[in-house]
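Sample entry (102 residues):
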Amino acid sequence: MFFKSEGELVDASIVHYRLFEFGRDIELNNKKFELTFTLDELKPDFIILADSFIDQCRVDDLEQGFIDIPELEELNYPDFFSLLNNSPKLATDLMIDYLFAD
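Predicted structure, serialized as tokens:
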């Protein structure tokens, strides 16, 4: 796993993240960062959790009558591994926007 902050390599073991609380003003000196890892470095059940998330998206979309993530619907809600191989940008977006805590 590689973690870069402002282009400089940083020891990933000292990096922390903080959930932003909605409605609260936060003044931070934000920096651009890049996190690079292999699938082998994910938690063993991450793919299972990701697949479950995608399945739940399908169910929610049908129940709500509208599509939250149109790209998933257009691809017919594939399993996460297929998504990684065929649409890595969408897989990355899901990890950043929805699956970061998993």
